[in-house]
Backbone:
């Protein structure tokens, strides 16, 4: 299994409105992801309160599985994100890092 980082910025046109309308479904989907989802949370604007995107750390077999995980997100289906980066990553340090 590999770790993938997903960095997803909301689209600037109606991302905030779509995020608000879809948030409950997105959170239910994320909670149902089980061990696949290692970390998830909103990206915040400089004001520290406005949500401008989402960040995920997932553990899946390969890039195709990471893309499939992402595609199943209700935020993706609703068109919340304008820019998305999905990259394999290595957990080298910090609490919870593999030895």
Residues:
């Amino acid at each position: 299994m590999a770790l993938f980082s997903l960095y997803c910025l909301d689209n600037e046109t109606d991302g905030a409105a779509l995020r608000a309308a879809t948030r409950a479904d997105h959170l239910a989907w994320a909670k149902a992801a089980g061990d696949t989802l290692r970390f998830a949370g909103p990206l915040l604007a400089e004001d520290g309160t406005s949500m401008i995107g989402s960040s995920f750390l997932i553990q899946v077999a390969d890039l195709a599985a990471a893309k499939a995980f992402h595609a199943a997100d209700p935020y993706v289906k609703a068109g919340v994100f304008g820019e998305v980066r999905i990259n394999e990553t290595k957990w080298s340090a910090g609490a919870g890092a593999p030895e």
Summary: The two ends are 15 Å apart (CA to CA). The first strand starts at residue 2 and ends at 10. The longest helix spans residues 15-31.
